[in-house]
Amino acid sequence: MKLTVLTYNTLFSGRDGSDDRRAQAQISLIKAVKPDFFLMQEAKGFDANGGVWLYALEAQIGMRGFLAVAPRTGQNLAILIREPLRAVRFDVDGAHFHHATATLKVALPNSHKQITFICAHLCPNGPEVRRREAACLAVQAAPDQLTLITGDFNSASPHDPEPEDWSGLAPHHRARYFADDLQGVDRSVLAHLEAAGWVDLVLRLDPDKVPTVPTIAYRDVEFATMRCDYLLASKALAQHAQTYQVLRNATTDSASDHYPVLATFEVPL
User: Fold this and answer.
1) How many CB atoms lie within 10 A of CB 38?
2) Cβ–Cβ contacts within 10 Å for residue 269, how many?
3) Could you read off the pLDDT tens digit of each residue along the chain, which spans 269 residues?
4) Which of 38, 62, 141, 230 could hold 80 in an S-S bridge, CB 3.0 to 4.6 Å?
5) Helix/strand/coil for 60
6) Pairing of the two strands 114-121 and 147-152
7) Which of 137, 121, 101, 126 is nearest to 41 (CA)?
8) CB-CB contact of 233 with 199 (8 Å)
9) What are the E-state strand segments in 42-143?
10) Cα–Cα distance for residue pair 74/65, rounded to 1 Å
């Protein structure tokens, strides 16, 4: 069975006050891509007014949504799935994470197999906090289970070069990403997750390691040019990964400060 997965940090749900033009651009992209799974970070405001924005998004893109409320920051997360996929269990962890994590176990149609999706948005404020968050995710890397973590990790990979524009980033923004030696970019968070058994799909499917931040419209704001958004698969699921692509086009250049990432899997039933 072919499964398409889209992960996207939408920057405040694609809204700038009452201006929802970015949100509408994001929705147009989702409708064009038609993912089976959409994992959304910064679903800010989706818990307000009885979840009206969540329900509107469900209706517009034809998917069913599950919302993880971030109790301290309001930067909620959401996982949306498309029929005939069926949700088995949904869990939220707002205690061990700066924002939260959303975990959805899904049953594949006409099969006994289940896949678990974890939507994560790690703390932007420093690697010390992110390492604690990563420890909670590391223990879920059971190699024989079909599991995928996607989201904004606010971290660089040990496999990626130092960002060329790192030295030009304002010091108070660099402070969010400093390694322990206060020189280069920290890579320990992804290194710890890989040591636990998570597989960074870009290493298998995208030799160019295309950066996911910043987009063209948000250059010179708070990011160096780097990979910040990841799809980390368990060993069992990684072997079924087929494609990986950072979606860079005229729409995504300005719809958020992050580029969305799209991946496909071929899972035998």
Assistant:
1) 25
2) 9
3) 999 999 999 999 999 999 999 999 999 999 999 999 999 999 999 999 999 999 999 999 999 999 999 999 999 999 999 999 999 999 999 999 999 999 999 999 999 999 999 999 999 999 999 999 999 999 999 999 999 999 999 999 999 999 999 999 999 999 999 999 999 999 999 999 999 999 999 999 999 999 999 999 999 889 999 999 999 999 999 999 999 999 999 999 999 999 999 999 999 99
4) 38
5) helix
6) parallel
7) 121
8) yes
9) 64-68, 77-81, 86-93, 101-107, 114-121
10) 17
Alpha-carbon torsion, ordered 190, 192, 196, 200, to 10 deg: 10
Q: Are 85 and 64 in contact (CB under 8 A)?
A: no
Closest of 150, 110, 114, 142 to residue 236, by C-alpha: 142
What pTM was estimated for this model as a whole? 0.97
Contact 104, 81 (CB under 8 A): yes
163, 224 Cβ separation under 8 angstroms: yes
Please enumerate in sequence order all residues whose Cβ is within 8 A of that of 266, keeping only pairs 6 or more positions apart, or say none. Answer: 1, 2, 3, 240, 242
Q: What is the DSSP letter of 49?
A: G
**Residue 26 carries which side chain, given as an amino acid letter?**
Q
Gap between the Cα atoms of 171 and 113, Å rounded: 48
Backbone angles phi, psi at 145, to 5 degrees: -100, 150
Cα–Cα distance between 213 and 232 in angstroms, integer? Answer: 18
Do 119 and 148 form a contact (C-beta atoms < 8 A)?
no
Please state, in angstroms and as integers, the Cα–Cα distance from residue 157 to each residue in 177, 187, 241, following that order.
12, 5, 19
Mention every residue, 6+ apart, whose C-beta is less than 8 A from residue 176: 124, 125, 126, 154, 222
- Tokens 């958020």 sit at which residue? 256
